[in-house]
Amino acid sequence: MLSVKNLVHVYGNGTRALDDVSLSVPTGMFGLLGPNGAGKSTLMRSIATLQTPTSGSIDFDGIDAIAEPEKLRRTLGYLPQDFGVYPRVSAYDMLDHMAVLKGIAGGKERKETVESLLNQTNLWSVRKKALAGFSGGMRQRFGIAQALIGNPKLIIVDEPTAGLDPEERNRFLNLLAEIADNVVIILSTHIVEDVADLCPRMAVLAGGKIQLEGAPAELMERL
Ligand code: ADP
Ligand code: ADP
């Protein structure tokens, strides 16, 4: 369970991007819906320990994200918006390299990890292809494979469906739903349909404040 309490983030120029945000996120897929500028990325980056909030607290299964960020990072998978790839590296080699960085040193364990992630994300057939040649959908699925290295229990996915065609979007969201069995996945998006079908719980963020929180079926008529 992720618990965010009274989170405030004020940027250097005075922009109050998060204004007293509190959220409880249980295991499974959780949709964070909001228009551009709502504060979604700021909240995602704060939970991913990439920026320190002005005030408030973030706790995941007893780990204090602000006091012990390196501990949370060990159980965190993060797929940022617009993540960069090394264009000439193959999907296999990149995952293998990242597994080394994550401390999966044993050759056999690493091979099994990389192969299982490639299969899970349906990228096995393109594992030797350079990342520069990947379609948008393939790229996002590769991003998820990267985020899953080391079996994280908290997965943050920031606006992953932007620019995907409907088929790839569904494929990507279904992949997330498959993973969501016993982990917390937070999916931020400005597309209502992304959260409507697959997220049992959701919240709406606008102007740095949580406007609504609940099950999509209850909230949709109020959007
Ligand atoms: P979203 O992801 O929902 O589009 P963001 O978290 O990116 O929202 O932005 C929330 C608000 O904070 C916006 O008004 C944005 O312009 C502002 N903002 C984001 N990053 C910065 C920054 N580094 N410095 C100043 N303002 C920022
Ligand atoms: P997507 O569903 O994202 O389109 P696919 O795996 O179906 O992903 O393949 C998308 C693209 O990747 C296709 O344009 C195809 O040319 C290329 N591709 C698929 N399999 C291979 C492969 N084994 N080697 C090289 N390119 C491939």
Separation of termini? 26 Å
Low-confidence stretches: none
How do the helices and strands follow one another from N- to C-terminus?
Answer: EEEHEEHEHHHEHEHEEH
Shape: globular
Strand order of the largest sheet: 6-7-8-3-9-10
Query: What is the overall number of helices?
Result: 8
Secondary structure class reads: alpha/beta
Query: Which value, in Å, is the CA radius of gyration?
Result: 17 Å
Q: State which percent range the strand residues make up.
A: 25-35%
Helical fraction: 25-40%
Number of DSSP-assigned strands? 10
What is bound: which ligands?
adenosine-5'-diphosphate
Mean pLDDT metric = 95
Largest sheet: 6 strands, mixed
Properties at a glance:
223 residues; six-stranded mixed β-sheet; alpha/beta; four-stranded antiparallel β-sheet; binds adenosine-5'-diphosphate; 27% strand
Can you give a write-up of this model?
The chain has 223 residues and is an alpha/beta fold. The chain is 33% helix and 27% strand. It contains eight helices and ten strands. The protein has helices at residues 40-47, 69-73, 91-101, 107-120, 136-148, 166-179, 192-196, 216-219; strands at 2-10, 16-25, 28-33, 55-60, 63-64, 76-79, 154-158, 184-189, 201-206, 209-214. The protein has a six-stranded mixed beta sheet with strand order 6-7-8-3-9-10, with helices on both faces. Strands 2-1-4-5 form a four-stranded antiparallel beta sheet. Helix 3 (91-101) crosses helix 4, helix 4 packs across helix 5 (136-148) and helix 5 runs parallel beside helix 6 (166-179). Bound molecules: adenosine-5'-diphosphate (2 copies).
